[in-house]
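Thread title: Can someone regenerate the structure for this chain?

I was given the following input by a collaborator and told the matching C-alpha cells would be attached. They weren't. Posting the sequence so someone can regenerate them.
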Amino acid sequence: MTYPEGLPIADGWVSAPGSQAVRFPYDGSEIGAAPVGDEDLAGRAVEHAASIRAQVGRLTAGVRRQVLAGVAAAVAEAAPELVDLLVLETGKPRIDCDIEMRRSVATWESAADEVAHLHGETVPLDLQASGEGLFGFWTRRPVGVVVGIAGFNYPVLLASHKIAPALAAGCPVIVKPAPATPLATLRLVHLVREQLVAAGAPAGAVQLVTGDVEVGRTLTTHPEVAAVSFTGSAAVGHRIARDAAPRKVVLELGSNAALVVAADADLDAAADAVVRGGFYASGQACISVQRVIVVAAVAEEFEKRLAGRLPDVVVGDPRDPETRVSALIDETATERVLDWIGRARAAGARVVAGGVRDAGGRCVTPTLLADVPDGEPAWDEEIFGPVVCLRAVPDLDTAYDLVNASRYGLHAAVFTGDLRAALWAVDRLEVGGVVVNEVPGYRSDIAPYGGVKDSGIGREGPRFAIEEMTVTRMAVIRP
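Best answer:
Regenerated them for you:
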C-alpha cells in the first residue's frame, strides 16, 4: 500500500522526528515502520487547521457531499488491501477486519447523506410579547477545529467516525491514531486528502499526527481546538475531559457489557449470542459480552449449553479465515487478562472453560468464568479480552438491578420472549443502548451510539456526531 512518507501535516507530508516498528501481534514480527510525531508537529497541525477554519467552513454542501461520497468509493475499492493490513496491524481475526471495512464504507456513505440534513428551524418569537414583529431562525455552524483520537481495536472505523462527521459539518480535523496501529489510518487519511484535492478543497482539512501522551495533550488542550472526540479507556477519557475544558468533548469509553437471559429465553439463541458477542475481535471491543446474568430457573442448563459451544471457537492465526480468537494487541494486555482470570479464581470463581494460553502461547483461550464475586476486575472492569463471566440471579428484576450496579453503561442486551420484559429493559437499564434478542455488540453505524456514567458522553453515528461538531447560531430580525 503506497502513500507519501512522513505525516500529513498542512497541505503536504512532512518528515517526522522519529519512527517505530509496527508489529504483528500474533508472532511479534515487524510489518513496517511508522512515523512518530512530536509536540511541535501537533502544534503546527492545529495552527494550520485554525488558519483554514473559515475556508473549510465555507465549503458548499455539494462539495462536502462530493468529498464524503468519493471517500466511501475509494475506501471500498481499497478494502481488500486495508483488510490485509488491519489483520497484520491489529492481530484481529480476518472476519472482524472485513466487517470493519464494510462498516467504514457505510459510515462515509451515511455522512455524505447527512450533509443534506444539516439545517435549522424558524422560531416563533412572538410567543412572547417582546418578540412581536420579530422574525427568528437558527442555523447550525461548524464548531471549528476538531481533534479525533482513536483506539487500536478498530483503527479505520473509529477514525472514520471522527473524520467523516467533521468534514460533513465543515470542520478541519486532526486525527491521532493509537501508537500500535497507525498504518491503516495513514492510508485512510491519504485517500481522504486525495478526494479533498479532487474537489478543490484544501488537503489540510484532514491531518494526522502520531506520537505519545504529550502529543495527545498538546492536541486536546490547544486554545485553537474547539472539540475533541475520543475513543478509548475511561481513565484516559476522563483526563481528556478535564484537560480539554471548556472545549466540547465526545467520549466513547469502555464498558463491561451485560447480557441478561430471562427464564423464557431461547437458550440456544442466547448461548450462540454469548459466543458470537463475547469473542469477536478476540474480546477487544467495548461492547463485547462480558457479564452474562441468567435467571436461576435456567442457569444450569444455559451454562451447559454455553460451555458445550466453546470448543468450537477456533483459536489461532488471524490470517486464517476460520479463526475467531487470536492474540491480543500486545503481551502486556495478555498478561493483564490472565492476571484478572487468576484473581477471579483465587476469589472463588469457577473456571468453566479456558483461562490459559493456547498451545502456541500467543493467545488467551476463550474463557468462561462462573460466580465471579463483586470487587473483582474481571466482573467490575472492562477486561478487553476473550473472557465471559456468568452469574445466576433469582429473577429478572434482580438481573436488571445487577446490570445497573456498574460504573459503566454503554450497551446491554436481554434475551426474552416477553414483550413486557423487553420494554421493561428499555425503560430500566441505565445504558446508552438496549438490544433485545441480539448481542450487546450490535451497533448500527447510522444510529446514535454512546454511553452513560463512566462509559462516556455525547453520541457518535454521523447524524449525531455532526450535531456534536456544530453549534447553533440564532438570528433575530426586525423587518
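The domain at 258-436 is CATH 3.40.309.10 (Aldehyde Dehydrogenase; Chain A, domain 2).
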